[in-house]
């Protein structure tokens, strides 16, 4: 039975799903060394933001197939190492959207009405109403940095509260901003014109310290900034100085450059800062949503099915997946075949998607072809996650072409590879019943199903040659299951495709090559 390690606290609803298919161990609070020591035992790892899945952990994870992040941000997972190792990384892109958006809005209202401090003062026995005069958000300007799922919800609610919404997101269309009633502006304008600024962008190389002393200096003196996205997007030292000098109205932070927040000058600030311990996703509803979402994906991957929200392989809608699944098998089989024909050190692969496959949704077929091509060298180490990266690292030049006009079969795939045995090309298609057919070899038309053991010869189309090869195989006790010859012109060059019941015994291939008229011979196992 597969084994799943759950190393952060996740909702029971997720655990229940995992136990349908696996032994589930819950071990939280592990150090990097402790996690590294036990990870080789596990097929899947389920985490929240607490566990750091470092390169070292991934290096040791010899059986791991999937890392499931019960939440959005995967910045606590070393995704490039996971990809290289063929480990799928999945998240729950929407399960906590509302929770995080509502936390940002709660922070905004808490700042505007001094709720944390007023609460504290009442609990201390005071009845001080003068110190906590607030300000309304109605008719104020809210600047939303990142108009994705969370930012959009914040914008909608802000709009409903009567706020004017400015947004900065270089990857969002004007049309989407219009739909949300937001004005798209550049970051400088957003900072200088907003009364409240809220961040909803991922932490990346580009966004690290995006908000720094210069941006903070552009804010209005009473303006407030909220970060419920990721620590490290705001330069904490610059924020501390800005708040200490009273240059802006306040800040509310749910996330920090280093978590858990250790000793920090931010804790020393007064009532112009609100700090929460990364609670954005901490609602009962969100925790159930993300746990179910990620557990279902782990279950599916352990059962050999695709994951719907993989961050390191292209996400496919169920409809597209349904259409492509049989063709993935075809592409992989053809990749494997052309790889074996082309020999070692394949230097290029040309993938041509033909007929109805010639649209962009068929991109995963290119990955499947590469996976098939590399399977001889890498065996089970290559998968849909790392095939492209492995091919690139091996210097395989990939050419993708699409031709909707080729309709010999309504959908077909043509692969051409160049390796130590020269240039070879194969085409394949699916029959109506979903059966794979190899429909050409090196341009010679054939119509054969793939077989575990196959023999291909290139020869002159002259009388007697097929008989000679047949009796030679008989002498070596090789049983022929089927045989087909493909030729373009009578008595020209031809290809013979034989399906055989067992692997070709050693020494047969050189004998076949000695038969007069045979120019080349290949044995392949699919
Ligand atoms: N505090 C929490 O507990 C909590 C909970 C959930 C999500 N989050 C964090 O919130 C953030 C947003 O999540 P989401 O689900 O809305 O993600 P999303 O992918 O839907 O949206 C992110 C948006 O940021 C934009 N963006 C990317 N780079 C940008 C840049 N350099 N400048 C401006 N915009 C940029 C993208 O175009 C996208 O529209 C993530 O960092 C996520 O990890 C935090
Ligand atoms: O796991 C959590 O509680 C935080 C999740 C949140 O930061 C996210 O990116 O989804």
Walk me through this protein's architecture.
The chain has 526 residues and is an alpha/beta fold. It has 17 helices and 22 strands. A seven-stranded parallel β-sheet has the order 8-7-6-9-10-11-12, sandwiched between helices. Helix 3 links the parallel strand 3 and strand 4. It is elongated and about 110 Å long. The model has no long low-confidence stretch (mean pLDDT 93). (2R)-2-hydroxypentanedioic acid (2HG) binds at residues 48-49, 71-73, 96, 278, 280-282. This is D-3-phosphoglycerate dehydrogenase. Belongs to the D-isomer specific 2-hydroxyacid dehydrogenase family. It catalyses: (2R)-3-phosphoglycerate + NAD(+) = 3-phosphooxypyruvate + NADH + H(+); (R)-2-hydroxyglutarate + NAD(+) = 2-oxoglutarate + NADH + H(+). Keywords: Amino-acid biosynthesis, NAD, Oxidoreductase, Serine biosynthesis. InterPro entries: ACT-like_dom_sf (IPR045865), ACT_dom (IPR002912), ASB_dom_sf (IPR029009), D-2-hydroxyacid_DH (IPR050857), D-isomer_2_OHA_DH_cat_dom (IPR006139), D-isomer_DH_CS1 (IPR029752), D-isomer_DH_NAD-bd (IPR006140), NAD(P)-bd_dom_sf (IPR036291).
């Amino acid at each position: 039975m597969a084994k799943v390690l759950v190393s952060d606290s996740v909702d029971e609803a997720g655990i229940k799903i995992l136990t349908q298919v696996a032994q589930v161990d819950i071990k939280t609070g592990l150090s990097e060394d402790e996690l590294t020591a036990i990870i080789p035992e596990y097929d899947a790892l389920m985490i929240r933001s607490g566990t750091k899945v470092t390169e070292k952990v991934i290096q040791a994870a010899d059986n791991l197939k999937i890392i499931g992040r019960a939440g959005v941000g995967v910045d606590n997972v070393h995704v490039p190492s996971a990809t290289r190792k063929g480990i799928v990384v999945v998240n729950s892109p929407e399960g906590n959207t509302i929770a995080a958006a509502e936390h940002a809005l709660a922070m905004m209202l808490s700042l505007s009405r001094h709720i944390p401090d007023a609460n504290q003062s009442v609990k201390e026995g005071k009845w001080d109403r003068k110190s906590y005069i607030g300000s309304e958000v109605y008719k104020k300007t809210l600047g939303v940095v990142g108009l994705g799922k969370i930012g959009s919800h914040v914008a909608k609610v802000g709009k409903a509260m009567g706020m004017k919404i400015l947004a900065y997101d270089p990857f969002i269309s004007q049309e989407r901003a219009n739909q949300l009633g937001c004005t798209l502006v550049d970051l400088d304008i957003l900072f200088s014109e907003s009364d409240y600024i809220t961040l909803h962008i991922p932490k990346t190389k580009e966004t690290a310290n995006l908000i720094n002393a210069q941006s903070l200096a552009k804010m209005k003196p009473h303006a407030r900034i909220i970060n419920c996205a990721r620590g490290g997007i705001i330069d904490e030292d610059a924020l501390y100085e800005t708040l200490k000098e009273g240059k802006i109205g306040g800040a509310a932070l749910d996330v920090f450059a280093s978590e858990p927040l250790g000793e920090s000058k931010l804790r020393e600030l007064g009532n112009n800062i609100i700090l929460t311990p990364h609670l954005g996703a901490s609602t009962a509803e969100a925790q159930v949503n993300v746990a179910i979402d990620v557990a279902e994906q782990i279950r599916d991957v352990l059962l050999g099915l695709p994951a719907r929200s993989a961050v390191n392989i292209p996400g496919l809608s169920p409809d597209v997946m349904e259409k492509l699944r049989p063709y993935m098998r075809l592409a992989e089989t053809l990749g494997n075949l052309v790889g074996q024909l082309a020999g070692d050190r394949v230097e290029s692969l040309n993938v041509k998607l033909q007929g109805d496959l010639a649209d962009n949704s068929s991109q995963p077929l290119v990955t499947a072809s590469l996976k098939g091509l590399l399977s001889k060298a890498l065996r089970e180490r290559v998968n849909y996650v790392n095939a492209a990266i492995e091919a690139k690292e091996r210097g395989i030049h990939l050419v993708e072409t699409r031709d909707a006009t080729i309709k010999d079969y309504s959908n077909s795939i043509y692969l051409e590879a160049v390796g130590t045995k020269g240039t070879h090309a194969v085409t394949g298609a699916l029959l109506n019943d979903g059966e794979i057919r190899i429909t050409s070899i090196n341009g010679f038309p054939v119509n054969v199903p793939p077989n575990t053991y196959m023999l291909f010869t290139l020869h002159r189309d002259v009388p007697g040659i097929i008989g000679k090869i047949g009796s030679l195989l008989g002498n070596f006790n090789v049983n022929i299951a089927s045989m087909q010859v493909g030729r373009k012109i009578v008595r020209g060059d031809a290809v013979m495709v034989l399906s055989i019941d067992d692997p070709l015994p050693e020494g047969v291939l050189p004998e076949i090559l000695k038969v007069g008229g045979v120019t080349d011979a290949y044995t392949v196992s699919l």
